[in-house]
């Protein structure tokens, strides 16, 4: 399929690209091109720290991503070669997860600057991408980081600089998640030593490698524990309405050989009351200055149940998710998504066909908030790349200060810029079970 022509105007304002039918009836958006089906290869892997859902195309014309809407029934890669395609992929959740959409948006901005690197083009591309998903702070953070990097440059140098900065963002995410895994592993080891048996972890939604550039956030300690030979059993919330736990986290853990069981969203409280959960680990889309945590809808209920039953509730949080500009969680914008996500569901039929069915009486209205906010008082700790810290304002301000100082020191050091393909290069196919 030939890429569609960019849909823009001379002011630099971007309009959503028109939808069309791709090969085999696949619907594509903008410049999305299906690259590979399940069975033709596995997810990208660095060979050292596991699979990755985004990589740079070998010819440098764009990126390709795992189309997560098709999982767990089909693994396919889609190429994204212009800003409209990246924006559509983020908005329609071809890819999702706060760290991943931040990195993808950074690459999307670089692609936009290849076409129009003027000030108007830069501003329009940032606006186009920022409008796709309002809740996850990584999206705006990544866009503003790239913008600050390229704004002082001559237009002719902006696209290449943006591409390099997107590569840095991707590489930093892999490193941050690996560190989160090590700090979380220490918590799991401590519980294992006290229990004398497998550590039983409950997680919500998908904060795995599919949501990041590698390792995942909430799953990083799990994969590190598996590599260390620590016995585990993971309770996987289905996570309605898009079922990211049942569809994505269970798929990840199954391929990695991690013992797990999918449970209904409302089962977690009972399991905690029975003493069958040792700790809860979730990811997050934004953390406010006071430690309030915004994550997938249903997280708040898990935190309440954990608090009532004395179960530790931890949030895995890369520092890119910290938003010190927001005083508390009440200021976090909550995305309202389509009612159809709630009223309809897709699955594989007995004949092997993936079909969508309606779950409610025809014409039934539905509300679909995608996120909720867990108050800091319910959070046992935040697992960051710099260690486990309490969910309180003083600790987060100090953490933010140290992170900013470290970034300033790094920026002041001379040296080669990180290559964008160091974190997302096309690599050898992952070997069976190769995650950690």
What are the low-pLDDT stretches, counting only 5+ consecutive residues below 50?
Answer: 1-31, 38-42, 413-436
Oligomer: single chain
CATH topology of the largest domain: Rossmann fold
What is the molecular shape? globular
Mean pLDDT: 85
The tally of domains stands at 2
**Largest beta-sheet characterization:** 7 strands, mixed
Return the structural class.
alpha/beta
Question: For this structure, what is the CATH homologous superfamily of the largest domain?
Answer: Translation initiation factor eif-2b, domain 2
Distance from first to last alpha carbon? 36 Å
What does the secondary structure layout of this molecule look like, with pairings?
Elements: E1 19-21, E2 27-29, E3 33-36, E4 44-45, E5 51-52, E6 54-56, E7 63-66, E8 77-80, H1 83-91, H2 98-115, H3 119-130, H4 137-150, H5 155-195, E9 199-203, H6 220-227, E10 232-237, H7 244-256, E11 260-263, H8 268-273, E12 279-282, E13 286-288, E14 293-296, H9 299-308, E15 313-316, E16 322-323, H10 340-343, E17 344-348, E18 354-358, E19 371-374, E20 381-384, E21 387-389, H11 393-412, H12 421-424
Parallel strand pairs: 9-10, 9-12, 10-11, 12-15, 13-16, 15-20
Antiparallel strand pairs: 1-2, 3-8, 4-5, 6-7, 7-8, 13-14, 14-19, 17-18, 20-21
Helix pairs in contact: 1-2, 2-3, 2-4, 2-5, 3-4, 4-5, 5-6
